[in-house]
Design brief:
Layout lengths: L2 E7 L3 H9 L1 H7 L3 E6 L10 E10 L2 E12 L7 E8 L7 E13 L2 E12 L2 H33 L3 H23 L15 H21 L24 H13 L9 H5 L11
Helix pairs in contact: 4-5
Length: 280
């Protein structure tokens, strides 16, 4: 898969499974998803299950589509896997389709929660360029940020709504500090009033401004604030694509019947209106 995100959550496997598989829970922590609804199914316990959803591609751009989801809750090695395949057939949608999986790997201290996913855009080369420069970096950031918000919910009891408020408040403080530094804090008119200390402070002010700006830009977020930087962006060992995702892709290809062959003009000329072969 093209994109990879991994986090470690100190929680019970069943709790993590519930918070990620229940659509009502997932809408609260997943920044990329605004709505997901499973469609009626004769046997909800069997895979795959059809669904429709609304996904956020960019902050102010969402796409609607349908897909199939499947899960393996009990595996011989103790892990769990879920996968989905999503398509957006509307011609105005920039996203053609997407697919991915979640893998749950329990260990002595919690659960390694990781994902591999990829998507396809319309638009040919311009669409590919926009994907590389904008959409993929934003998708990686949003996925990692959402994973860390989920971790805070399970580990520390910080609800997704509270985590978002913490993030916005810290972002506002950083922006205010940065704006104050860029305006020089308005200290220049006050330096003559400091007497003999004015030259020393005039020398130190630029250095202090650099230190404060660096802290505002690069200081690690507070412990209760979600941060994408806490997640891994590349696997230690290259993972294999789960079989459940390959099954969904194969079933998806079978859902589209092959097009009938188009007869050549010569063949049409040899066929009479009543369907009998005409003179050659």
């Amino acid at each position: 898969m093209g994109l990879y995100i991994e986090t470690h959550i100190r929680t019970d496997l069943d709790d993590l499974w519930t918070r990620t598989q229940d659509p009502a829970h997932r809408r609260r922590w997943d920044l990329r998803l605004t709505r997901i609804e499973y469609l009626p199914h004769p046997d909800p316990d069997t895979a795959p299950r059809p669904f429709r959803c609304t996904a956020r591609v960019l902050p102010f751009l969402t796409v609607h589509g349908t897909g199939m989801a499947a899960a393996e809750r009990e595996r011989p090695d103790g892990t769990r896997t879920s996968a989905l395949r999503f398509t957006s057939p509307h011609p105005l949608s920039p996203l053609i389709g997407a697919g991915g999986y979640w893998r749950y790997v329990p260990d002595a201290h919690g659960v390694r929660f990781l994902t591999g996913c990829d998507h396809r855009l319309r638009g040919g080369r311009p669409g590919a360029l926009a994907d590389r420069l904008l959409l993929r970096p934003l998708t990686v950031w949003a996925t990692a940020w959402s994973f860390d918000r989920l971790r805070l919910w399970l580990e520390r009891g910080i609800t997704p709504e509270r985590a978002l408020a913490n993030w916005l408040a810290e972002l506002a403080v950083r922006a205010l500090v940065l704006a104050a530094c860029l305006t020089g804090l308005g200290l220049e008119p006050m330096l003559p009033l400091l007497g003999p200390l004015a030259p020393v402070l005039a020398f130190l002010c630029p250095l202090l401004l650099v230190l404060v700006i660096s802290a505002a830009l690069f200081k690690a977020p507070l412990a209760g604030t979600p941060a994408a930087r806490r997640c891994l962006r590349s696997p230690v060992v290259q993972p294999r694509v789960p079989g459940v995702l390959r099954t969904l892709e194969q079933q998806g290809s079978r859902l589209s019947p092959p097009r009938p062959p188009v007869p050549s003009p010569a063949a049409c000329a040899r066929t009479a209106p009543d369907g009998r072969a005409g003179p050659r």
